[in-house]
Amino acid sequence: MQLSKREKQLIELFIKHGMTLTAQELAEFANVSTKTVYRTVKKINEASDIGDIILAEVGKGFRLDYDKYLEASVTRKSGDVIQGPLERRNRILLILLFKSPKKILIQELFEEYYLSPTVIKNDLIRMSEFLAEYQLTLVRTEQRIAIEGSEKHIRKAVNYLIDANRVWEEDFSTQHEKISSYDINFITSLLEFIERKLQNGIAYPYNSNIFSHIYILVKRVREGEIHPDTRAELLDPDEEELIVEYDQLYQISRMVMTKLNHYLNIILPESETFFLFQYLISSRMENEQIKLNRKSEVALEITEFFAKEMSCLMGMKVDKKVNRQDLYNHIEPLLYRLKNEIIVKNDLLSDIKSEYPDIFKQVQQVGQIVTQKYDLNVISEDELGFLTLYFVKYREMINNQKRVLIMCSSGVGTSELLKVKVRKAFPELEIVDVLSARKFSKAPEKYKNIDLILTTVNLTIERMTPTILVNSVFTKQDEKRVKQMLGEM
User: Cis omega before residue 427 (within 30°)?
Assistant: First the structure.
């Protein structure tokens, strides 16, 4: 169900203030007219493909059908379309970036949108401005256009535009980017291969980032022409030393590239091995045998600084040794990402900023000081959001009892936020794992002693464990349901 910002805000008013509200109450909360409220309610109901989710009740006002809202939220229409000029331009940019440096007819790119020549001209200007930020150029030859620039910058632009978590979803390939299910399954098998070699799973968001990186590479090979940047082939002494020190990770990258060469029937540039190696190095390693074993003095200093400053700002002490180590294990690869401009997207960012505005602002404040003090590249809001979750976790950490599984379609973004929210509301619960329904179905025997499953998607998996469908941000209504369920267990 696709909703505008205003429509989402109206839904949030019901969740925050009560399931039944009058038009006047909604208007006052939203600071709009009652006429706008009626119009917005109508649009929300029209966007739902399972019937009205906001019902009008005589003498009471409007009531949000919470069950139906959750069902509509997790149901994706097969006919979803691009909405708005920004989404349109981003989709066209992705097509051009994947096919670069091939030239494509302008008419072919824009024909499905039925736009005037003036609007198309304006789109091309905006697209050129966006590409300039990535040192890329939109080149036009008569009625054809193409994107030119280094492979490194093309990948960065694609990574910014693409929704990495959507790539994980099984219906994404056929409905949106038109990458075959065979490719998606192969990339999934590569990620599983990496995890086996690491003898451990790769935590979110690094698993999503690596998946996205390989996905983009496959798409570039399928649709465009990869010309390795000669400069990228030359490694500096620090990079050579890194390869020697973490040879096991580099060999894993080599093995993955060998599999890709066979699958794509092409010999990929040697630089691709190092690119993947960078993503592995910049990920948080849980395996003690492969974990980055060189203690970075700068990372240690920054960890201590963050812990000390946040302790003061939050009025609590992040002084447990396990917490400091936990934070250090995130900050060390974070510094490598900053140095090498590796982007990790945070699909939880808007929810984190909304749910934990004070802690996010505090982390942002400390982050700005750290950036200046240690002469770092700017820490993005995406990275600040991940850091925020660490301090939310430290604040809410208490011994747990009941064993709970958390699931979403991919086992990544939405379930991580849900994990934090559940831990806050029910500190007595033990959250055993955060995973996808697909991963659960492959090894259900691993989760025999689970008391409750919380999921953001409708599960079709046969199960004996009690299951509750909840919102990804875990609202007060969800909290009541879980409390009721726990009371009955």
Answer: no
CB-based contacts of 268, cutoff 8 Å, min separation 6: 217, 221, 226, 257, 260, 261
Q: Which one, of 342, 100, 311, lies nearest residue 224 by Cα? A: 100
Q: Do residues 50 and 75 lie in contact, with contact meaning Cβ atoms separated by under 8 Å?
A: yes
**Packed helices 237-245 and 271-281: angle between N→C axes, nearest 10 degrees:** 70
Domains of the chain with CATH codes: 5-73 (1.10.10.10), 85-149 (1.10.10.10), 159-280 (1.10.1790), 297-395 (1.10.1790.10), 398-488 (3.40.50.2300)
Give residue-wise pLDDT tens across range 50-77.
Answer: 889 999 988 889 999 888 888 777 654 4
Q: What is the pTM of this model?
A: 0.63
Q: What is the DSSP string of 370-421?
A: HHHHTTPPPPPHHHHHHHHHHHHHHHH-----EEEEEEESSSSHHHHHHHHH
Nearest Cα neighbor of 404 from 373, 374, 428 is 428
